[in-house]
Design a protein that fits this description.
alpha+beta, Nuclear Transport Factor 2, Chain: A, three-stranded antiparallel β-sheet, 13 strands, 24% helix, elongated
Length: 203
């Protein structure tokens, strides 16, 4: 009788221990979602929201034009593109961690500043057009200040390249910043100081 009793206790103990380990393993198991026959941890809707949160654009102001799951350097990433009334945005987001790997924002052509050969600026925004004469540029140092102000901790010494260029008749400062293993590329309007293009790529 005693032997049977101890056998029953041993069996019950084994069942309890097995259940504890099984629950522990299931708790550690990370939830995944199925996207295009691929298991990832971030859903399409979550990826879209991460991009919107990062860009500080509200959902009702954004028009999504592209969202695609792709594989790059053994990583699954979401490629997301959307636009607002004034800007276009592109994002690459890690489909498992939700980390923003790279992004860019660019002014749309509907709102632009064009510098003519005679030195006049044409500011166009919808149907409104204003023409005024000027030859004053903000200067390279000011352009550096504007660029590094967008990166916490960066200084003008981190600007590795900057030069004046012309894009579709518009004078711009085109430059690059390298800071904390991340490369930033920018285009800044040489007259207004507006950041036209901003690209970020982590090394």
């Amino acid at each position: 009788m005693k032997n049977n009793f101890f056998k029953i206790l041993l069996i019950m103990f084994c069942i309890i221990v097995t259940g504890v380990f099984a629950n522990g393993n299931s708790a550690k198991k990370t939830k995944t979602v199925r996207v295009l026959n691929v298991d990832v941890k971030i859903s399409i809707e979550q990826a879209k929201q991460l991009a919107l949160n990062h860009s500080k654009v509200s959902k009702n102001m954004a028009k999504m034009t592209k969202i695609r799951l792709d594989k790059e350097n053994r990583k699954f990433i979401y490629e997301i593109e959307f636009y607002t009334e004034r800007k276009k945005y592109k994002y690459n987001i890690d489909a498992n961690t939700g980390k923003v790997l790279s992004y860019s924002e660019k002014e749309r052509s509907s709102a632009s500043t064009v510098i003519r050969d005679d030195g006049k600026i044409i500011n166009t925004n919808g149907s409104d057009t204003e023409i005024r004469k000027t030859t004053k540029y903000i200067g390279i140092e000011k352009a550096k200040e504007i660029a590094v102000a967008r990166i916490t901790g960066a200084k003008k010494i981190n600007v590795t390249n900057i030069q004046m260029d012309s894009e579709k008749g518009r004078k711009i400062y085109e430059g690059k910043i390298v800071y904390k293993n991340t490369e930033y590329k920018f285009d800044i309007d040489a007259i207004t100081g507006e950041v036209i293009t901003w690209e970020v790529n982590e090394n």
